[in-house]
């Protein structure tokens, strides 16, 4: 029997030389599943997302993480990315002097372990930029420089499509998007999942609206660094109407 795609076991994390933020998080995601983590500001959602990708800002002080059965707790971020993990950032960084096209060509070559030709990356980007309603001229602009919030988020989904990861963490990809941009981003994620049905996804969000579009298999509530409740999509709907009052907030 194949191991789960991704597992977190009793994970405890603190800011580097700072306070503990995550207090024994457990989570199992199988291939093809979509899980969502919801919680109020300061609950540890983004800490969890960046820890999964090996951010040096945080230190794992207990527990472990497994990807396809391998203990990746000590792996560097680039090793995780090459192995097939992906993080869409809540606040994508601008990189002056590096075009979107060159960035994706280098990243895709590293991910697949072979040199991707300029023609192949161009064709793939053209196809996905059309699906994401992105101006093709963006591929030759510097990465995220001068992009609107919505354009940055679409660019994250473009990266997700081109890099073809096995497991994707989307950290508040819906933050700051209007209704139309949200639908475009959600449609892009759906189309990627149709072409890669075995890809697992962890959505981190404040809002029901993204979950309405993507229909997660499981929803988890993270409060004060702990998962306090898990359930189906109906749990997100309950939060939308009742808030976090029953959790003492």
From TrEMBL:
Gene3D superfamilies: P-loop containing nucleotide triphosphate hydrolases
Family annotation (PROSITE patterns): ABC_TRANSPORTER_1, ABC_TRANSPORTER_2
Keywords annotated in UniProt: ATP-binding, Nucleotide-binding
Recorded GO MF terms: ATP binding; ATP hydrolysis activity
Keyword Nucleotide-binding (UniProt): yes
NCBIfam families assigned to the protein according to its UniProt record, in alphabetical order: sufC
Protein name per Swiss-Prot or TrEMBL: ABC transporter domain-containing protein
Highest classification ranks of the organism: unclassified sequences, metagenomes, ecological metagenomes
């Amino acid at each position: 029997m194949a191991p789960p795609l991704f597992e977190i076991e009793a994970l405890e994390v603190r800011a580097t030389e700072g306070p503990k933020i995550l207090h024994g998080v457990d989570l199992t995601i199988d291939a093809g599943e979509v899980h969502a983590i919801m919680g109020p500001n300061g609950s540890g959602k983004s800490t969890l997302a960046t820890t999964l990708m090996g951010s040096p800002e945080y230190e794992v002080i207990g527990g472990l993480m497994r990807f396809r059965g391998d203990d990746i707790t000590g792996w560097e971020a680039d090793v995780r990315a090459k192995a097939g993990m992906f993080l869409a950032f809540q606040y994508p960084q601008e990189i002056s002097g590096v075009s979107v096209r060159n960035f994706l060509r280098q990243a895709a070559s590293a991910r697949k372990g072979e040199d991707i030709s300029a023609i192949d990356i161009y064709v793939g980007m053209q196809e996905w930029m059309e699906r994401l309603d992105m101006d093709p001229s963006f591929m030759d602009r510097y990465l995220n420089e001068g992009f609107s919030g919505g354009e940055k988020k679409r660019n994250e989904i473009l990266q997700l499509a081109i890099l073809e990861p096995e497991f994707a963490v989307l950290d508040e990809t819906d933050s700051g998007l209007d209704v139309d941009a949200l639908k475009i981003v959600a449609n892009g994620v759906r189309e990627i999942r149709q072409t890669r049905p075995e890809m697992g996804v962890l959505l981190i969000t404040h809002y029901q609206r993204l979950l309405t579009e993507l229909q997660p298999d499981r929803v988890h509530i993270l409060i004060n660094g702990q998962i306090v409740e898990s359930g189906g999509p109906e749990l997100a709907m309950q939060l939308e109407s009742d808030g976090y009052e029953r959790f003492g907030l």
